[in-house]
Amino acid sequence: MGLSKVANDLVITEGIAGVWFYHWALPDSFVSLCGARVMFTSIPANKWGCTHKNYHIPEWEAKWCSKCVQLSKDRKEEAHESQ
């Protein structure tokens, strides 16, 4: 997914219910856009959807929340419309 479609104020977080399941959230929030409880990661926003050994994201395990993707797009569109 192109990062340009995501709201600029979001960070990648990891769900606490499972390993390697990633969500978008606001900085300093323990709840993702889709409502899942999350914890912080060191994964930069531009790595959304990627697998990378430096971030310990195995290709066969990583999951990226599709609800958060849609909600992040909606958030960016709303921000653009309010300008």
Explain the overall architecture.
This protein has one helix spanning 66-81, and strands at 11-15, 21-25, 38-40, 63-64. By secondary structure, the chain is an alpha+beta fold. The chain has one domain (3-81). It has a 4-stranded mixed beta sheet with strand order 3-1-2-4. It is globular and about 40 Å long. It starts with 10 loop residues before the first strand and ends with a helix. The model has no long low-confidence stretch (mean pLDDT 81).
Give a short synopsis of this structure.
This protein has 83 residues and is an alpha+beta fold.
The coarse silhouette is globular
Distance between the termini: 24 Å
> Sheet bearing the most strands, described?
4 strands, mixed
- Helix % is 10-25%
In quaternary terms, these chains amount to single chain
Output the helix-strand order. Answer: EEEEH
What's the average pLDDT? 81
